[in-house]
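Input (structure):
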């Protein structure tokens, strides 16, 4: 392992705190050190790296484009450092206290309940408050410790850890497919068929990948719901083609044949499901324990297929 880094790691973490607060004074107060020390550390860091990280004047502080990229790495380093801290503390002390968690309804009641039950069984000194939500939730604004979400992270004061990839596949009921004038063999045919759309995750395009490359589809949406269980019922009732996940919803239906894959040689883009929590809680042993449990349950669900 390389020991002689060309810069001071502590200075890199100080730089990260300055960027988050857009203020030397605020960062110094939060770090419990004089403003002059923060300024000196940053000047030395810029000298060591040979680049300009920030531009300062009497009115504002701005970060250079390269500085923003350096900050992204600094945030990752601090997250890993806090992860080490949580690991050490977790080995000394059993997680305890109350955890408030928001899980989108699309993830499913079965998954949420299994994660909750396993967590409470593993950690008898913990309390858990899970809320199934059908809207975008901000952990700080809405008073949650942990939020499950898809899509890119918009707020640099939050931490996102991927729990699982939600693998999706196109499917329909056997009766729906039997009623079509011809078998579905090409993705372009979906542009004329009614589509059951899951209504969450923000605007998106339906993209499929196969041996012939990447194709963008624009099927007419017949129905939309922000819950996979609702979408599954629509599809099973023969109302159209839809995209469903394998890990948490459709295992039994595929086995029984009440849902059948459509264009199985074409792969849909997966949904990354992250666990998001405030930056200041990144050292929480309770949150780390819940994350490990959430990952454990999705592995069990995949194994049940």
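Output (sequence):
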């Amino acid at each position: 392992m390389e020991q002689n880094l060309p810069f001071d790691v502590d200075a890199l973490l100080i730089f990260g705190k300055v960027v988050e607060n857009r203020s030397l004074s605020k960062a110094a107060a939060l770090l419990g050190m004089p403003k002059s020390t923060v300024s000196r550390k940053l000047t030395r860091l810029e000298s060591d790296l040979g680049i300009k990280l920030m531009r300062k004047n009497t009115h504002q502080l701005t970060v250079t484009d390269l500085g923003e990229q350096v900050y992204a790495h600094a945030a990752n380093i601090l997250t890993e450092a806090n992860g080490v801290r949580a690991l050490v503390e977790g080995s000394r002390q059993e997680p305890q206290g109350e955890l408030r968690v928001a899980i989108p309804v699309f993830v499913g009641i079965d998954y949420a309940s299994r994660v909750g039950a396993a967590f409470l069984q593993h950690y008898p000194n913990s309390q858990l408050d899970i809320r199934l939500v059908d809207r975008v939730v901000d952990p700080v604004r809405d008073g949650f410790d942990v939020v499950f979400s898809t899509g890119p992270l918009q707020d640099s004061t939050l931490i996102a850890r991927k729990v699982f990839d939600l693998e999706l596949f196109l499917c329909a009921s056997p009766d729906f497919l039997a009623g079509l004038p011809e078998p579905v063999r090409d993705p372009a045919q979906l542009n004329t068929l009614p589509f059951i759309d899951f209504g969450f995750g923000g605007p998106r395009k339906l993209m499929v990948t196969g041996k012939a490359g990447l194709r963008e589809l624009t099927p007419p949406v017949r129905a939309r719901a922000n819950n996979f269980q609702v979408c599954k019922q629509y599809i099973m009732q023969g109302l159209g083609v839809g995209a469903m996940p394998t890990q948490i919803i459709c295992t039994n239906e595929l086995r029984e044949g009440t849902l059948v894959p459509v264009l199985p040689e074409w792969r849909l883009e997966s949904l990354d499901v992250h666990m998001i929590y405030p930056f200041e809680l990144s050292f929480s042993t309770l949150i780390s324990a819940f994350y490990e449990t959430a990952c454990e349950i999705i592995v069990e669900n995949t194994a049940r297929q």
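Notes: The radius of gyration is 24 Å. The CA atoms of residues 225 and 273 lie 18 Å apart.
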